[in-house]
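User: I'm putting together a teaching handout on how multi-component assemblies are represented. Below are the sequence lines for each component of a complex, exactly as they appear in our records. Could you produce the 3D structure of the whole assembly as structure tokens, so the students can see both representations side by side? Please keep the chain order the same as the input.
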Amino acid sequence: MSTAALYNDQGAAEAAVEAGQETTPTSSSSGAAFGLFSTDFKKNEDLKEMLESNKESLKLEAMKRIVQLISKGKNASELFPAIVKNVASKNIELKKLVYVYLVRYAEEQQDLALLSISTFQRALKDPNQFIRASALRVLSSIRVPIIVPIMMLAIKEAAADLSPYVRKTSAHAIQKLHSLDPDQKEQLIEVIEKLLKDKSTLVAGSVVMAFEEVCPDRIDLIHKNYRKLCNLLVDVEEWGQVVIINMLTRYARTQFTTPWKEDAVFDENNEKTFYDSDSEDKKDQTEAKPYIMDPDHRLLLRNTKPLLQSRNTAVVMAVSQLYWHLAPKHEIGIVTKSLVRLLRSHREVQFIVLQNIATMSIQRKGMFEPYLKSFYVRSTDATHIKTLKLEILTNLATEANISTILREFQTYVKSQDKAFAAATIQAIGRCATNISEVTDTCLNGLVLLLSNRDETVVAESVVVIKKLLQTQPTQHSDIIKHMAKLFDNITVPMARASILWLIGEYCERVPKIAPDLLRKMAKTFTAEEDIVKLQTVNLAAKLYLTNSKQTKLLTQYILNLGKYDQNYDIRDRTRFIRQLIVPNEKSGALSKYARRILLAAKPAPVLESAFKDRDRFQLGTLSHSLNIKASGYQELSDWPAVAPDPTVRNVEVIDPVKEWAPSLGKAKQPKSDDKFYSDEEEKGEEGSDSSSSEDSSSSTEESGSESEKESNEESEKTSTDSGKSSSDSERSSSESEAEQKKKNTKKKNKPAAADSDSVESEAKDSSSSTESSSESNSESDSDSDSPAPQKISVKAKPKVELKAKKEVSLLDLDDFSPAPTNAPKPSVISSSLLSDLKGLSLSNVSPTLQITTSSFGPEKTHELLHHMTGKGLSAKYHFPRQPCLYQPQMVAVQLILTNTLDHSLEEIHVGDRSPASLSIHCFNTIERLEPGASVTVSMGIDFSDSTQAANFHLCTKEDQFSVSIQPAVGELLMPSTMTEPDFCKEQKKLQGMNETSATIIMATA
Amino acid sequence: MEQQLDGQKPVQKASPEMIHSLFLINHSGDIFLEKHWKSVISRSVCDYFFEAKEKAEDPENVPPVLQTPHHYLISIYRGKLFFLSVVQTEVPPLFVIEFLHRVADTFQEYFGECSESVIKDNVVIVYELLEEMLDNGFPLATESNVLKEMIRPPTILRSVVNTLTGGSNVGDTLPTGQLSIIPWRRAGVKYTNNEAYFDVIEEIDAIVDKSGTTVFAEIQGVIEACVRLSGMPDLTLSFMNPRLLDDMSFHPCVRFKRWEAERVLSFIPPDGNFRLMSYHVSSQNLVAIPVYVKQNISFLETGSCGRLEITIGPKQTMGKMVEALMATIHMPKSVLSVSLTASQGSYTYDITTKILIWDIGRLNPQKLPNLRGSLSMQTGVPKPEENPSINIDLKIQQLAISGLKVSRLDMYGEKYKPFKGVKYLTKAGKFQVRT
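Assistant: Of course. Below is the structure of the complete assembly, with chains in the same order as your input.
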């Protein structure tokens, strides 16, 4: 290097100029005299000087050039001492580039790398979280075994850091340390265990990744965190989602029992039940083999479903494979649409997705059949995409759609891409064997192709025809003759061999042609390919047995040629055949059976998909894609026969008050987002019952959305001044008049909002704290023991919500304690709400079920009959939510009848009803309703525990109007109070096809 | 030296990280950038890839997943470049593919294009980006808003200033986005003009057969947004007819439950350009086919020529003008040259790729564009079995062919009045006419 310094007579100034153009080593101006090696040396000498200068800009320039060297894979290791000094630079970019260098070369220069360690150790204590994180990132990336203890310490500290970002970095560092020194495994597992408990969405993905790398077999670490992970999943960043979903798939396969009915496992015949209505399924399950899905299993399925809408294709694929491996058969169908959507994505994405669909479509045609056309091939597709699409189309072929598919195949056969055309012919062959109805059609089509100009097409056709003929040779001697004629024109060895085999096999059907063909073959034998030679020997042997008169000499000639062939396979075969067919003293007993050996009826070949055996791999994996077990692939275990103890996943309830305090103090905007996503988070921590009562059924989603909308309206209304009510009405165009009216009155009641902030938080709070929750099960009616009281319900009360909202807004934010409790404000919140909340609270008392009656009903009315359709009679109804006086099974409904005409209406009563069995307790006929007057009447309707609408006629003296009342699920339920353990207990007794749930976030615990 | 390192490899336990190394390879097979997230893997590993590339002829046909004795190679082909990643253990291939495309997207966003020369010119920024995007082989920050806070995209002005002052591309403020509950948006955005634009862009994918009947048609739509709003706006976008949409995927900012319940898009938008959602309308009868193509392509049995005549006319254009009409035909290999006359627009025929492009422009319903003439064929070669199919490109402004309409956009959380705009555009996607 010192010599190099001597050469360096050009000085730093020129080096700086040169720096601008420097890209390749060959562009150097150093001249030929220095030879090859000096170029690099001199350059690096420049860089060294720049690095040692006092100017930041020169140093930066030097580092940029060094990074360029690294990016090209050039060696810049001897600059290490000069660079490592800059590790403490104040310039952020310079520092980052130094980090890049350090990470790349530290391994090679371990002693020097140690110089930088103290800088990082200092940075690990920096008050700025980003500096701490990046210090840990680089420190853990330096692969120097000596610093393992330092790294360990740093990781442990970072795992307890207050900043989730730093904790995330520590999760990454775990993997790095583990690969540097696997002996640290035990200690690292401790850190992983700790980080798994972390509630931040930022950390979740990274720590699961670390778990997968370090200790994938320690499934026991997951138990306690399972529910939390499920609930956090939606909010985790997309890459973390993929990792978590894959891990949970594995987890679920070890912890839950199979949701697949015994007889349904991978059985095409059961396709039907897959499509059948739920009712049938239900019957199956309850009668034959009652299977009750573990609520945690259900939780996983439910929480991953929204991710099918992710823009990240890897996430969609991960969810799809999760459903494929975990969901009950009839639920797998929901992933189809999303998978088909991915086919619009990049070529490489298409490739992987098509591979997976190919595997899926073998087992479950029904899933993709409706999307058949999405797999049509375009001339612009890449070849491997075309082949995969063809594979899928073939898998999907059924009697019903085969004509469409064959028509499509016809186009493909003519494709300019000959490899693809050949693949199409194979596909036609497969369709022909699988669907017996079209075998003849296909065969005829293939025979036509024999006159194709393209040799690959003809050859492929011959091979496929051969396979087809084997299945039903009797009717097709014409085709065999035709092929024999073609023989001279075909040069592709495989095709020639196929024809020879066919003629030999069915030589008795073509007695004249066969010997002639053998004669031709005898002439060209030596020039043929091996595979053709083998078949010629076969043909000769078979003809010798059936028609020895004509072919004896020919056979002997061919066997002699074969005896001296260069290929030992052919020599072997010839020797074997000679012994077998030409009896002599040595041949023994076997030759007696020669005929039976050679001319035995051969089973037809089974043409099956190349993806047939791919299902041994988990879908979406690299192993599946390559069809070979990749290193590090973890087998998906079979379902356990008996589920391991599910209680291991129970978590002690964490006092939700703690969780609440910070969320109130948060800034205004994130909060609204918070409300949307993170109530799940909180709920997850609340314990088993609420997490398993996540919403999925449409009816509660409606109610959820309603309250959501309402709270939105609320916040909008209050955050803007009263003058803005015009925009209000504009927004709620869909709302009924009644609601409008109600809103206005509400507004009147409300005192002017003191401060928009407080109102906002109030709106947020109320919407989350009193979100309606109802849990019902329409199946409970099949539960014959105890129909009515068995029903468990936690009643949804929109009314309560409204009230709570209204009242809480009276409070000042300052008065609002960080741990909001409803209990100390009995005057504010209606006693009934209180009792409801108490019922939900976590107290261990009140073991029995008690029916609660509410002292009020919701104000929300629904329109039954508009006054325009009702010719002046208008009717509204609402559910008072009180036990029906008439019969216990009935639901009480109140009707408000109004006469909007200028004359009175007479004899208002209930007329015909449908279904006829509908039992309604009618109100007494109203003899006379004066103009402008309205009357409230109550009636009872037995909805038979379904959300089926009750239809009936509302009649006046002159007219009758058909009306219907459709109850929301919540209206059918009876309110009752119970403790959480009771609730869980009752919930487990349910066996649900239908499930309704909503979220309640309790401010008090 | 590198060779040596690779030699040590088998001794080491297979490193568990997802993406080990990345190589950028140009069209002609030169590796012009490499980045390793851990120990260095010799570039010789790419030889397996080159082998496959050789075999595939067309770069499009290179299998995305390859196996080598010690590694697995997962690659994408974007903008004439191969992004080749090396992995050592089981990993979901889509995970890697999706990430590589994200990398390419990021380059595109930073440099305006994703090409070899641009990457070479900005090698330092590229390196800094890759460093932030992946930590130990696991994606760290892929959201472009977050990245832009950490590493500023180059502009001409800044590069001039940087050269003069020695300034840098690395942001001196630390990113906030990564920490917040809304990682896609940073705090404290300020604009003097607050505006939100949404482009509803639909592409028609169709296969039309010889006789003009539609074999397959569907609409793929995206809503591209350009939102420049101060503070933390909370937007709600609603449609007149959301039921049209069959299947969709959303930007992570969209509240899925709100969509499920009310069919409105509620979101706190990222700052700047982003794709809000993409959707799919597949019900066949809903898909209007805007143009018809009358064609007659024939190759004569004897002699070495063929004929070609194509006429394109309007079909279901909803009263809008069809613009930027273009027909592309991949001719069979045996077509040596063409001699055609176009009544409108111009045509080119590339002798090496055998691609005929007819650039028509605006479709005039009164005078239909027509292209006719003869094709000269290679002698002594059998006539092509199949006629080439025609790919159509077109644009229709101010129309979403599915009929999807945005009804309103509301903003909450901020007090100012934003300027709002919605634009519609229909394009031909993979629109293929078989002949």
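A couple of points students might notice: Chain B has three domains: 21-165, 195-287+401-433, 291-397. Residues 195-287+401-433 of chain B form a domain with the Immunoglobulin-like fold (CATH 2.60.40.1170).
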